[in-house]
Structure formats: structure tokens, C-alpha cells
């Protein structure tokens, strides 16, 4: 995962001293998070939580200055989406981790232009990772 993180750093404004948390969980927990934070009562594949949006700078604990957020990924969605995309589970997990990191870097897909930019960055990162991995 460190290699994927390094690739995304090279494509974004994230600092190479940035730190993230990654939780791979199940659909039931993702459904809870999706309901709680997005008011959607269904499981989802990936959720990103930007640390500074929920914890203002003056409340960042000592030693956490580089912590930018958490990414949650459903292993069940990884399996389903990998089959649909004819990818391995490992490739799909990498794609979702890239997606989550891009959100933490401030890149979103709220409109068509943003979605296109995000997809291009995802594809660029994944192609590089798969070609070297």
C-alpha cells in the first residue's frame, strides 16, 4: 500500500510526510458509516474522512500533524466490483485505495469535469502501479 500511496503523492499535492489510516471492513459496517455520514442506507465501496474537516488544527494531537485522514473499504464490494471489471481483487483494492487517497487530496467527483479529472488520475495511477508491480 505504501507504493500506491507514493504514486498518488506524485500525482497530487499531498506531502510525502502525509499519513493515512486504512480500514478494510465489511458491507454491514460500510452501510452504518454511509448512513451516519451521508444519509444513505446502503453499503458503499469506499469512504474517505479528511482529518482536518472533523478535527480543526488547534485540536490536532501532538505528533498527528501529518495525519490527513482515514479510508474505509468494503472487502465484499472489492470482490463484487473486481468480478464485474474483470480485475483481480488486489487490483480493485488498489483502485479503491487510489480513489480514497484522491479524496483526501481534495479531488472530488461532484460534477462531470471533476469526475473526469478523478477518473484520469485513478487510471494513470493504476496503470503505473500495474505496469511496475
TrEMBL record:
GO cellular component assignments: cytoplasm
GO biological process: rRNA processing
Keywords: Cytoplasm, Endonuclease, Hydrolase, Metal-binding, Nuclease, Ribosome biogenesis, rRNA processing, Zinc
EC annotation from Swiss-Prot or TrEMBL: 3.1.-.-
Main location (coarse class): cytoplasm
Localization annotation: Cytoplasm
Protein name: Endoribonuclease YbeY
Native species: candidate division Kazan bacterium RIFCSPLOWO2_01_FULL_45_19
